[in-house]
C-alpha cells in the first residue's frame, strides 16, 4: 500500500515547466554572474522558471548562505553552490 505504481509516480513528478530555479547571490559577485548565465540558458532550454534573490537585501538569506554564494535552489531545495554545472542542473530539472 505504501508503494506507488510507476504510473502514479510518473504523474506526481513535476515537469521542468512546473519547476523554479532560484539563484541566491549578491551584486558584484563574478561567480553569481557566471551562475546566472548557466541558469538562464538551462531554464530557456527546459522551460523551467527562474528567479534571483539578493542576500544583501534579505538578512535571513544572508545568514543562511553568505559563505556559499552563489547558491542554486530548485523548488526551494538547495541544488548546488559556488559553481553551477549545466548538465547536472538540466538532469535535476528533467528527472
From TrEMBL:
Q: Which residues form a coiled coil?
A: none
Protein known as: Glutaredoxin family protein
Q: What is the species listed in this Swiss-Prot or TrEMBL entry?
A: Streptomyces coryli
Amino acid at each position: 500500500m505504501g508503494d506507488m505504481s510507476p504510473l502514479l509516480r510518473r504523474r506526481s513528478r513535476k515537469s521542468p515547466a512546473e519547476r523554479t530555479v532560484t539563484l541566491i547571490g549578491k551584486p558584484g559577485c563574478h561567480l553569481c554572474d557566471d551562475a546566472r548565465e548557466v541558469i538562464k540558458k538551462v531554464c530557456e532550454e527546459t522551460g523551467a522558471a527562474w528567479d534571483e534573490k539578493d542576500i544583501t537585501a534579505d538578512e535571513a538569506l544572508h545568514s543562511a548562505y553568505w559563505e556559499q554564494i552563489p547558491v542554486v535552489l530548485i523548488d526551494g531545495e538547495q541544488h548546488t553552490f559556488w559553481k553551477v554545472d549545466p548538465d547536472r542542473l538540466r538532469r535535476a530539472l528533467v528527472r
